[in-house]
Amino acid sequence: MLSRVADQLYWFSRYLRRSENTARLVGVGSLLQLDLPRSVRFAWRPMIATVGAEELFLDVHPDADDADVLDFLLLDARNPSSLRASVDSAREVLRGIRDALPQEVWEAVNDLHLYIDADGERVLTRRYRLDFITRITDGCLKVSGLLAANVSRDIGFQFLRLGTAIEQADMTTRIIDAGASGLVKPRNEEDREAYQNMQWMAVLRALAAYQMYRRHVRQRVSAAHALRFLLHNAEFPRSVQFCLTRVQRILPAMPPRPAVERALTRATGLVRQADPALLAAGDPARFMDEAQIYLGRLHAAIAEGYFMG
Q1: Which of 6, 45, 93, 227 is found 20 to 30 A from 194 (Cα to Cα)?
Q2: Domain that holds residue 198
Q3: Considering its fold, how many domains does the chain have in total?
Q4: What is the rounded distance in angstroms from the CA atom of residue 3 to the CA atom of residue 309?
């Protein structure tokens, strides 16, 4: 397979998963707003740091309010990690490899693009936000289903799977980061633990993980239990450990690249050695930042090993 086509397949699956999870990230805040009393202060702003775009956001919105944050995360084409930018990037990449994937995939991605253009502004109003997020996540899952059901299991499919696994691991850490980033300001210290647990409940629900959490953990939601499930569970497809194990299983089907295997071993070791109880008692966001750095190094090794030259 040409390295150019492999690169495009890898990035198409990354942009698709990024689109879904950017919607899910906003879903964390939207679900929390539904559950919280009106007297409790809720802040969207920490989510900008979660996606690593604070400097760009301040350039674009020096005097920002909540509507600016939502617009930047979801609709602003100037933000390269926004929902709109991710869907548009997936569409543009797909335009160059339409012969490699079923026609239905192009139609489904184009439907998402048209929906955001036509109805995107509705997401800025609280009344329609969850409907918009559900429509986006369902559309992305439809594309994932088409890829899983209708694409031959050749080397191109392995690059699709590789992009999906790397992006999902990264976005799971970012959504966890959002849950640990102080979106809720309790009125007094006695309420802090209760509201923190509500944040973790929202994280699980946004990742479609709450039912599987109840099935595997069988404990009330807490920071430590949620972190253990989302970092270490070997059976839930959105957990970081599951995604890294998937990469481990994909690599034998691809040309050997020792640098990729080394980067994967380091990222896997970091996640496995994490102590969820210590993270919950300390600063989970700092660990998530470190995990994203390791995942970035794994991506760099993949790009150098398979797409350059």
Answers
A1: 45
A2: 3-307
A3: 1
A4: 8
